[in-house]
Amino acid sequence: MAKSTFIGRQKELELLDSLWSLPRATLLILYGRRRVGKTRLLTHWLNRDQKYGLYWMAEATSALEQLRSFSQAIIHFIDPESPTPEDFTYSTWEQALRQVALHAEKERMVLFINEVTYLMDVNPGFIGTLQKAWDHWLSDSNLMLALSGSQMGLMQKKILAYDAPLYGRDTAQVRLSPMPFSATKKFFPNYGAADRAAIYTMWGGVPAYWERLDHDLSVMENLQRQLMPYQSWMIDESRTLLQDFITEPHNYVAVLRAIADGLQSLGEISERAGLSGNHTSFYLSVLRDAGFVQREVPISQLGQDSRRGRYFVVDPFLRFYYRFLAAFQSKLALGQQQQTIHAIEEALPQFIEANTWQELSHTWLLEASANGEFAVPVENVGSEWKRNFMVDVVGLDKKSKSVVLGDCFWREEPAGLESIQDLVRKTGSAMPDNDEWNVYYVIFSASGWTAEAEEKAQSIIDAAASRRRRNWRPVGIRLVDLKTLDDDLDRWANG
Q1: pLDDT at 469 over 70
Q2: I need a surface site. Which of 5, 230, 264, 351 has the fewest CB within 10 A?
């Protein structure tokens, strides 16, 4: 197994430090998908400098047991030397929270309540009770209170919404996202960039998944181990993630499988799932709110209600699961892993190219521009497509009238001259319809380029620039390989 190392989250740690330093009560709302690292963040910060505080995790049990558990945790925290009777409990949550407020009057303390949604599941009035306690006692104390939860739908509806009891009382809100690809370099120092890209394709940026992997095994060996019959977590995890948002997952699963199989329009998804367009739209809206699915439009139509919009599964784990594992559940249950592993290994390069590699290329372009390391400024990055063509990477800056066009290749062999020529040929179709634009090209080839491509790349651009164009002028080209992208993202993340 991977060494359990805390990495990244620098901005979040700095926020916690700033909240702790304030001379008043503070309330943090921390939410994010399951296993994204909320608990590790809170406990690492608490233990790093030995802050005076209590970390308590709610469990999926009865309301009485939850109150008893919290009561005993409070009593033990206040007086750790005295034994706490096993049956001790405050009579109400109001009483328990009042004790917290009284203790926090004496000195600065932090209280982390993790998985607060478990309390809300069995006690719908809990947040209202907490709001009253905050207004009457807690806000006048020296308490730093943090509430975290994984059931994001419930968090948004009952805590973050405008009509929620705690609305307007929080000092800060943090939606904790998965770790970026750049974090894999520190977490998996024994793997090369290509292997780490494969890991990111399968398990995304979720540290809890990373910790299951053995650094002494290859990526595919790790995958095979995780798919053994006694290791059912990858099969179970997809259901667990969906159950945090919905109660009847069947139609949602059908929608996710359709998208993962490459069907991207509303009509295609509806037909594959056997659902009406209205029903499919509803399921898609829930999945979008959960952060699992995203609707994208051609970058030339950004901000418009484009009919060319496409749906994508943006959560890497779910995308991988529904593309590959969902169809092999029976075989995996019978211990027939080899067929699954072989099918994945065969299709994985194309899958990485169409998903992870393209996403990393978008990230690289945005970061390169933000760090002043790209020839032209870039405000927005996306893709451009029509019925008969696709440009993987398109960056726009309307102020400078700059357009960046790029394609992505994840192949064993280096990209050749034809990749550059093909991209230049698509320029006219990809350009915005108005104004004069300067066009800069960037091609992402994981395995680099042939000597001919490197030698003649700029001359192709110069030749294109010499020809009369309607509204665009080529101004340069950049070739980016996997090593460069990997090193750059790491440098910018840790700079």
Answers
A1: no
A2: 230
Residue 198 CB partners (closer than 8 Å, separation 6+): 219, 348, 352
Residue 493 φ/ψ, nearest 5 degrees: -70, -30
Shared domain for 362 and 346, answered yes or no, is no
Q: Which residue has better confidence, 9 or 335?
A: 9
Indicate which CATH number applies to the domain containing 140: 3.40.50.300
Cα–Cα separations (whole angstroms), residue 480 to 70, 407, 487: 54, 11, 11
d(CA 26, CA 142): 8
pLDDT averaged over every residue in the chain:
91
Listed residue (60, 67, 59) closest to 95, CA to CA: 67
Flag whether pLDDT at 255 surpasses 90: yes
Degrees (nearest 5) of the Cα angle 254, 259, 264?
A: 130
Q: Scanning the structure block, which residue is given the tokens 């870039």? A: 378
Q: Of all helices (H) and strands (E), which one includes residue 118?
A: helix 116-122
Do 364 and 477 fall into the same domain?
Answer: yes
The CATH number assigned to the domain holding 362 equals: 3.40.1350.10
Q: Return the exposure string of 405-443: e unless at least 16 CB atoms fall within 10 Å of the residue's CB, then b.
A: bbbbbbeeebbebebbeebbebbeebbbeeeebbbbbbb
Contacts of 490 (CB under 8 A, 6+ apart): 182, 185
What's the CA gap between 166 and 155, in Å, rounded? 11
Q: Is residue 451 part of a domain?
A: yes
Q: Tokens 């359990």 label which residue?
A: 4
Q: Tell me the sheet residues that pair with 296.
A: 310
CA pair distance 239, 34, nearest whole angstrom = 12
Neighbours of 334 (CB within 10 A): 9
